[in-house]
Structures are given as C-alpha cells and as structure tokens.
Write a structure and sequence with these properties.
The chain is mainly β. The protein is built from five helices and 46 strands. The protein folds into three domains: 161 residues, Sandwich (Immunoglobulin-like); 133 residues, Immunoglobulin-like; 311 residues, 5 Propeller (Tachylectin-2, Chain A), CATH 2.115.10. Strands 2, 4, 5, 7, 9 and 11 form a six-stranded mixed beta sheet that branches. Strands 12, 14, 15, 18, 20 and 22 form a six-stranded mixed beta sheet that branches. Keywords: Glycosidase, Hydrolase.
Amino acid sequence: MNNKLIKKTFLGIGTMCLMVGLSLFFSCESDDTSGSGGVTKPYLSLKQYGLNRLSVANVEEATFSVTVKKHGGNLDSEFAAKLDVWNEDELNAYNEKEETSFVILPETYYSVTPSEVVLASGVKEVNVDIKVKASQIISAIQQGTHYLIPLRLNSDVVELRKGQRDLLLQLVIDYANVAIVSPEIVEKVNVNDVSVTTTVKTILDYKVDGKDLASNWDFICDLKVPENASELLETYNKQYSTDYELLPEGSYSLGQVKYAIGDHEAEAKLTIRRNAIEVKYYLLPLMLANPSTSSVTCKDNIHYIVVGQFYTNPIISDRSVADPTVIKAQDGRFYWYATQNSNDWMPVYSSTDLVNWKYEKNAFQKATKPTWNTDNAFWAPDMQYINGKYVLYYSYAKMNGTGQSHTCVVTADTPLGTYTSAYPKGAFLDSKKLLSNEEFGANCIDQFYYEEDGHKYLFYGSFTGIYVVELTDDGLAVKRDVDGNPVLKEKVCGNAFEGTNIYKKGNYYYLFASIGNCCASQNSTYEVVVGRSTSLLGPYVDKQGKKMLDNSWEPVVDGGDRTKWVGPGHNSVIIKDDAGTEWMIYHSYYYKEKGNKSTFAGRHGMLDRLQWTDDGWPYIKNYLPSESDLIPVFYK
C-alpha cells in the first residue's frame, strides 16, 4: 500500500480518537455562565470547536469558516472578541497528552478574517474565515508534516464558554493519485512482429470533499521497472508456479503518462523489439513514478505483463482442414493437406513457421479426380518425399460406403503438383489405386507411410483394425512375392482405432491413433491416444503392458469438459523444431455453446506442444487443446 495512503488512513482513525481526547482535554476547564438569581450571563462560543479537518489541494487558497455565537443575557449589547493562536507550550502539552505530533502552521501561510470579531447589538453570530495558502504547504504535508492551526476565542468584555472556545484545525490533503489499471487476468503481449507496441492504461483518482474531479494540472509520470524487479519475479513464479524470466533490458522502451487539465485517464506506450528476445516466457513488472507536480502522487501498485512470441489456436480457421498431414518440403516451407470438405477437394496450405498458414489451392479438381467410384471423396492425405518425388497417399472413400474405400497414390514434382501447360498452378495427375477393400479386406483409409532400414511400410485402417503392408522401393505399390501375394500384411491394433501416425523417440516407437466419433460436430467424441513398442511392427502397449491389439491405450488429448473445443483428433506427423521441441498438428471442432460463435462448422487446424511424462509417455498439457503457447523455433 502507498505510504501516503497509510498515513492518510491513520490520520482518519486518529481524528476520531482526538475528538474524544479533546472533549476530555477541554472538560477540565470551568463552564459556569450562570449569574445571580438564576439569570444567565451573556457569553460567546464557537459553533465549530474541537478538532476539525481542512482538506487542502493544489489551489491558491483553502477556506474554513467558523461561527462565533452570542448566548444568554442581553443580546442587545455589543461584544468584541478575537481568535488567538495557541503558544508552543500549549501545543506541546496537548501533543504529550494526546500522543500526537502536530506542528503549528506559521501565520504567514494563513489569515483570519475578520481579525477582530465584533457582535453588534442584535447580532447573534458572526462568521470568521480562515484562509490557508494551500498550494504553498501541500508539499510539506506530503512529506509528513502534520500541520495544525490551534485557535482560542478570547475576549476582555464578555464571558466565554470554555469548553467551546478552542478550534484545532488539522490540515490534510485530498490526494490526487495516478494508478495503473491492472486487469484481473495478467496481460499477455505477443511480440509477433519486428516490434510491438502496447498501451498501459492509467486512471486519476482525485476527490475533493468526496467529489470525483478531473485533473487540475498538466503533468507527466514515468513508466518504470521497479528496482526490486528480480525479487518480484521470484515471488510471482512461486505464487503462480511459472518459470518466467525477467524481460531483458534493451529489449523494450517505456513511455510516459501525460495528463492534461480535465483528463480522467491517460495511457503510456510500451514497445518491445522481437530481435532482442528469445522464444520463451518473460515477465515485466511495471509501476508509475516521478510525477512532474507535487500535487499528484503515483500509487505504488505493480502491474505485470507477460511477454513472449505466442500463437493462438486455431491456427487455421477459414475452412475445414480435417485429418491433416504436414511435410517440410525441399523449398524449406511446410505444406498442410487436409480432407475434402464441401467446397474444397483437399485444401493445401503453406507456412514457414507452423503458425501462419496461407491457403494455396485445392489438390484436386474435377478434371484430375480418379475416374472410378466418382461419388467417393478425398480423405486423410499423407504427403511424403520419396526418391526425389513428392508422393501423395490419400484415402478415396465414401461415408458409410461399404466396400468403397481405397488408398490411392499420385506423384508430383512439387508440393503443389506437377506444372504443365494445362495446369500452370500445378496438379496431381494420374492417381492409382494402392489398396482396396476387395483385396485387403479392412477399411482401406487413414494410411500412414513409414520408412526404416531401406524398407517402406504403409499402415492403414479405420475401426476394423490397423494393419501394415510393405511397399516397393518407389513406394508406389504393395511389395509382393512371386505368387503375387503381399510379402507383409500384419494387424498391429484392434478395432477401436483409426488415423495412425508413428513417431520414434529414443528406443520406442509411439503409435498415435484416434478413437471415438470423428465427425458428429458438437457431439463428436474424438480424441488422440497412444501406445508404444520397441519394434515398428509392435506389439504396441499401454503403461500397464496391455496391447493396443486388445484396444488398450494411453490418452494424449481429448475434448475435456467441452468449454471450447470438442472432438480433437487425427494428428499429423510429429514435427521437431530447431530448439528440439516436438509439435503435434491435429483438428478439432469449435464447441458452439450459447454465445460462442465460429466462422464455420467444420474442423479447425490446431497446434500444440507435445510434452512427456517422466516415464516417457507423450501428452498435450492438461490433455486439452491449448488456448495459446510460445511459437515453434525455426532459425531459417
């Protein structure tokens, strides 16, 4: 709490105590105004007596009016009196008795008008104005001087009511305070450009006689980092279980708060430079200081800002981009391919950072669609780079179309297809069947390519078992023996799974898959699960050693309590950035609870940091899609 506010609070409490003390202090004096025969003698008193407060602000004068009243006897008489200042001995005695530390305000800083009070015949009361040169003493009061104007009503011609003849006028400040407006949720600043400028809002708290007023001054305050910033950071990290670092000096510049007369609010600018920070979380504590006028104080509350280079989910939200596959192409860019939606036959996006995606085109159009099963759609693509060619595997199937699922393959010279005169923007031409229900019996969709030790494998399947076959050296056909039978066809997971994806880390192969209902919009139950094995072909097991062949698994991410996302699933290949962080791309529906709106009803593109338990199991933090996180690190 501001030290000056503490003083002001103590003064308020002290005032009540002093009022009690004054009544006892003055009650020791005689108060006999009775005359002989029971006739009351004429006497004078102060209407405002005892301890009173005069609030001073940055004005030329502050005025307190006190009334001298005539009582009893013959009111037709004329009486004269005067308000005299206590002497130092009287004030010292008072301070000692009441345990106060008042100082008599020098008479050069105030005036009493009229200096001599005359109550003419028939006049019952007269007002006396005590005018204080407020602007000249406000600085001293702010420094802690407790000024008092102690006055006593004296007269040589009339009795005085002694219990009501002393006025102690305590001078206090109506402080004008400037404070940073801190929201309930700590502000996050995303440094997503070369430099980013944000505003720090402040408000002026200025009251005179209980009324809110605007600024009475043109003044400025500095925005600054507290000297004990390192201690504040340590305390913050302990309180909120964070591991933020202090935003380094030289990475930011702080502006000033500028108030003009009549302002209630003002802002300061904070500018942060991206090239001066790393991809990590920083904390910047801020405060206000050094007001340019002594009439204003800066509250010493601390305002915290979290700084970093963030992204926010979803990373793609302009169209449905379900069942994603992402490849880093030879041109250094990432390319995202997704399941067909009503308007886009396998939309393709590109990015340099996994966060900012640009729509490029649709991989297919009517002229390049396979000529068989023309009612089928393009699902769950998987893009690979094999032997100098881009090889696109995709599912060609129909919802609830029994016996109509196929895995197809097509090659191209670039991630956007082969460029020809007929297709100047590139096209994927001459698709071929690779797997079909007729031969392989399972639901031949959701294929995933994996290469190891010179062998090329294709995993596939959806809710009728996950299988693996071996491919030829060019990856364009199933490898067969002399009798034409596949050299390998092996079941690796049970019937609970689809959307296979395998990632090797250390000695383990991690088989990611999705379970539940993928495509029921707000009622989807999709989620990503995982098992692991020391062999590519399994068996894949959960933490207890139970097999995925028996439909056991460990969770990775799900829809949780459905506060925002529902049905997250079907992840792409795990991508490691240049800092070694592993990232998972997947899709999710937006949960359209009452009041929440989405730009479309399809599946959004999502990105999340993959985390690992101490015993080596992957998961997304809290097992829920994140709101935001630090961006992936790519140095080129």
